[in-house]
Amino acid sequence: MRLPETARLVLTLGIAGTLSGVTIVSTYRLTLPRIQANQAAALERAVLEVLPGGTSMQRLVWGEHGLAPAATGAEGGDSVYGGYDAAGGFVGYAIPAAGAGFQDTIRLIYGYDPGRRRIVGMEVLESRETPGLGDRIFKDPEFVAEFRDLAVEPRVALVKGHGEGPNEVDAITGATISSQAVVRILGQANEAWLPRLPPAAEAPPLPPPQERRPVHPGGERGGPVPGGRAGEGR
Amino acid sequence: MPDPITPSAELLKGLWRENPVFVQVLGMCPALAVTNSAVNGLAMGLATTFVVVMSSLLVSSVRRWVPKQVRISTYILIIATFVTVADFALQAWTPALHRELGAFVALIVVNCLILGRQEAFASRHSVVPAVADAAGMGAGFTLALVMLGSVREVLGMGSWFGLSLFGPRFEPWVVMILPPGGFLMMGVLLLLFACVADARRRAGGRLYGGREAA
Predict the structure, then answer these.
(1) Could you report the per-residue pLDDT of A149-178, keeping only the tens digit for each?
(2) For site-directed labelling of A70, which of A185, B42, B80, B136 has its Cα 20 to 30 A away?
(3) Mean of the per-residue pLDDT values of chain A
(4) What is the predicted pLDDT for the residue at A233?
(5) A223 vs chain B: nearest CA distance in angstroms?
């Protein structure tokens, strides 16, 4: 008598599980192209945002033969992004980096101009810093502006008060740990990447126009957390 | 004595008399965690409404065939499926909002409000009242989250749905968008609801109606 009852339970859960699996897989297949397109658009917007003058980009992977354009569709690998202006000239590298923040990992991307050896822009892609305090690393216009022209030599340094040096970033009052985190993440990424990046003249060129993907520069500006939060930094 | 079951009564009870947040005090985790802005509260409320309505629809239609030993597992499976669908949909169409809500979209699956409605209502009623009940509870949950989110956003950021209200000279009351502000505001709103219910009862009305909440 027990077997049919058990079989009924197994059958019920089996059917429910199968239907659930089919539904989830179909939704996944249906939404995947859109989700990937969103991610690609967000990344492209961020890259062009941190490289002023850039209108197109390509992913560059570090491999045996130095830095080379990523094969189409290839994933993974240690990579940065090359930004190019409308004429195809090299503008700079956009370097993604991540590290521990005050609450969780901060992911950011910053633009580096190898000719002038300066950081030319920085954007926080993902962070869970305290609203109103730590989130000023991307909401405080003054702090963000520090990274528009920042020398990487001898190293990016955080100072309290007003730093005058070209390599100095003013810490945000009340968000020292988050500011420190950003500077530390930049420092680590600089150490890892700057020696490997070829100078502008030797940067991998952009492929011919017919092989390029269309880009849409000048997208919406703002922090990585749009959705209507006005950045009321003082 | 139970009220007669009519779809409109089932729909309306969730808004006020049995409001899932302010009266049943269910689903506190998302209600406190994501309501630092009105738009986040609205999005979480709508996603939860979608999940509870679809789950109730399915649970009430298959209730005859689900053996009672595995009913909870089946409900959770159904709920988890709709949560995953909502998660993918938010990611595809509103990526910014999905980033804001983060892990809390996936955590809708453990919102006891949803499982509670399946066990207490959908599994015992036919499709129409079950959907009406779920829609009412979802709407009540959304209303509560938007209320919480609105008060916290206005005080903590000086804006409502991202619209700046007081101009640049406003000094935001930052604690309101931090976790303590959530608890504080929840307490104030619970107090308010209790006071209103109390006043109604004194005036001769009933206290939350006859039926017990889940």
Answers:
(1) 999 888 888 988 777 788 889 888 888 899
(2) A185
(3) 82
(4) 33
(5) 11
Contact B39 A228 (CB under 8 A): yes
Distances (CA, A) of B163 to A190, A230, B147, B149, B151: 39, 7, 16, 13, 13
Give residue ranges of B with CB < 8 Å to any A CB.
36-37, 39-40, 65-67, 69-70, 73-74, 77-78, 80-81, 84-85, 88-89, 91-97, 99-100, 102, 156-159, 161-164, 168, 170, 172, 174, 177-178
Yes or no, beta carbons of B177 and A42 under 8 Å apart = no
* 8-state DSSP, A203: S
Among candidates B37, B92, B96 on the partner chain, residue whose Cβ is nearest the Cβ of A31: B92
- In eight-state DSSP terms, residue A210 is G
Residue A159, H or E segment: strand A157-159
Q: What is the mean pLDDT of residues B34-58?
A: 94
Angle between helices B112-120 and B38-62 (to 10 degrees): 30
Please write down the long-range contacts of A7-15, taking CB distance under 8 Å and 24 or more positions apart: A8/B67, A9/B67, A9/B69, A9/B70, A12/B65, A12/B66, A12/B67, A12/B70, A12/B74, A13/B70, A13/B73, A13/B74, A13/B77
Distance CA B90, CA B104 (A): 12
Q: Which pLDDT does position B78 carry in this prediction?
A: 95
Q: Is the pLDDT of residue B119 over 70?
A: yes
Q: Which of A135-139, B45-49, B157-161, B172-176 has the highest mean pLDDT?
A: B45-49
Q: Does A18 touch chain B (CB under 8 A)?
A: no
For residue range A105-130, list pLDDT tens digits in order: 999 999 999 988 999 999 998 888 87
What single letter denotes the amino acid at residue A121? G
C-alpha span between B73 and B27 (Å, rounded)? 20
Residue A97 · residue A108 · CB < 8 Å:
yes
What are the two backbone dihedrals, phi and then psi, of residue B196, each rounded to the nearest 5 degrees?
Answer: -65, -45
Q: Touching check for A126 and chain B: CB below 8 Å?
A: yes
Contacts of A30 in chain B (CB under 8 A): 88
Q: How far is B197 from B203, CA to CA, in rounded Å?
A: 10
Complex ipTM > 0.85: no
- pLDDT digits 0-9 by tens, B150-190: 999 999 888 999 888 888 888 888 888 888 999 999 999 99
* pLDDT confidence band for B75 (50 / 70 / 90): very high
